[in-house]
Amino acid sequence: MSFISFFSFLPRSFFRSQVSALGLIGVLVLSGVAVTSAQAEEVRVKLVTSEGDIVLALEPDRAPKTVANFVKYVKEGTYNGTVFHRVINGFMIQGGGYTADLKEKPTRAPIPLETSPDLKNERGTIAMARTMAANSATSQFFINVADNTSLDTSNPNANGYAVFGRVLSGMDVVDKIKTVPTTRRNPFQDVPVTPVVIVSASLIH
Predict the structure, then answer these.
(1) Alpha-helical regions (H) of the chain
(2) 200 domain residue, yes or no
(3) Cβ count near 9 (within 10 Å)
(4) Has this prediction a pTM greater than 0.85?
(5) How many Cα atoms are found within 13 Å in the side-chain-facing hemisphere of 164?
């Protein structure tokens, strides 16, 4: 079955109510990222989208496996030409898995869920999308456009969603994307009428 995030199976009302140093270095080296002390604290990724640029500051010191996974997809070019296929104003914008014609891009094996009480789905943070299974995230991600406490690991009814960074610049672009007109294209809901394309994703220094 095609990967559709957990979001696709629940009503909107649900969302509105409801390392050691060596270990970290090992994860980043395996992802093909040259490790420096600065990068261990923050990795920056630039998303060039059809609506403008978004710069992400990723936090490998807080979510090393999740950052390494995301960075590997960036380096492989997986995100180039994908779209934000699920956009809900007041909640989040989700992308990283489909092309403009909603064809699913190939992914690697899922990664373990990496959450903690201090990593919160606050406005402007980026987190991994997944299915209802906790350890199912692959390439899809979302950017929170509001404080979504129902997605945190502190929620007793959920395992939470792995936050691994934040928007450093371009939140105005995110806010522009969140308001685009959307429609339903089975089995997808909340699909932008005009595709919002991630033209490219790249590491920056």
Answers:
(1) 12-17, 21-30, 37-41, 64-76, 171-177
(2) yes
(3) 11
(4) no
(5) 26
Range of the structural domain that residue 159 is part of:
6-204
Structure token digits, residue 147: 């404080």
**Does 173 fall in a domain?**
yes
Q: Domain tally for the chain? A: 1
In a domain, 1, yes or no: no
pLDDT tens per residue across all 205 residues of the chain? 344 454 444 444 444 444 333 344 444 444 454 444 444 578 999 999 999 999 999 999 999 999 999 999 999 999 999 999 999 999 999 999 999 999 999 999 999 999 988 899 999 999 999 999 999 999 999 999 999 999 998 766 678 999 999 999 999 999 999 999 999 999 999 999 999 999 999 999 8
Tokens describing residue 26 = 């090992």
Residue 116 resides in a domain:
yes
Q: What is the CATH number for 187?
A: 2.40.100.10
